[in-house]
Amino acid sequence: MGLVARIEDLPLARPFVISRGARTHARVVVATLRRGGFTGRGEGVPYSRHGETAEAVAAAIAALPEDITHEALADLLPPGAARNAADCALWDWESRQTGQRVWELAGLPAPRPVTSCVTLSLEAPEAMEARARDEGWRPLLKVKLGTPDDLPRLRAVRRGAPAARLIVDANEGWRVEDWLALAPELAALGVELVEQPLPAGQDEALRGLPRPVPVCADESVHTRADLPRLAGLYDAVNIKLDKAGGLTEALALREAARAGGFRVMVGCMLGSSLAMAPALLLAQGAGLGGP
What we know:
Belongs to the mandelate racemase/muconate lactonizing enzyme family. It is an enzyme of class 5 (isomerase). The active site is at residues 144, 240. Its EC number is 5.1.1.-. Residues 125-216 form the Mandelate racemase/muconate lactonizing enzyme C-terminal domain. The chain is an alpha/beta fold. The protein has two domains: 3-106, Enolase-like, N-terminal domain (Enolase-like, domain 1, 2-Layer Sandwich); 118-283, TIM Barrel. It has eleven helices and eleven strands. The protein has helices at residues 54-62, 70-76, 81-98, 102-105, 125-135, 150-160, 176-188, 227-230, 241-244, 247-259, 273-282, and strands spanning 2-18, 21-35, 38-44, 118-120, 140-144, 165-169, 191-195, 215-217, 236-239, 263-266, 288-289. The chain has an eight-stranded parallel beta sheet with strand order 4-5-6-7-8-9-10-11. Helix 5 (125-135) links the parallel strand 4 and strand 5. Helix 1 (54-62) crosses helix 3 and helix 5 runs parallel beside helix 6. The model has no long low-confidence stretch (mean pLDDT 94).
């Protein structure tokens, strides 16, 4: 009975490289809630940038009381992978216990297919061009950048996928000077959005800068509490279940973001389909999609 947690290491089909490092496996924590003859599962992906480890996340889940509720969970755990896994396990358990779909329980319309994107890891320009050529049939590509040599990489991707819509993710890798130099080039290459160009905590530097391409907060936004300070700095927010601490807060954040005039993108960490499934509900009506 109650919640148990299991750590899983999932091999990736290819290395995933961003400006902060590379990964060949996704380390996830699966929360399983057994109560009253029904079982619910949820998955969280610990984020080392915020000091999370799989072991600490699993321990936090295992320490939760057997009668945990969404409301109590928000009081007991901060936003993050542990709360996300437990919250999604609760939604799954409630769905099975009631015989209703999660979207019905949440009072949402039935989900419809959404457009998602494929992420191109940070590599040498030739490698990124080849990958873009392979994936260029997809309608939307996200390009990982955030280095001193980003423009040759982006030009290579555009050569490889001349018809694809492009999003760029700098992963906090630029400075103001980089933005001023690169922004006109991004616009000329047809980039539709730039994620987190500056480090989180330096958001105020975006105020008043030229904006030829819309800018999206990622590392700078976790929950509804972050939105007021981002107003006037970002055009969009990237909502992730692991950052928000579960579907409950993520849905509330989506509505608050829309009410505040932000466009909404729904992202994810490196996880399995168990982690992605709840995000389909979150992505309904999102202006931009993808991991």
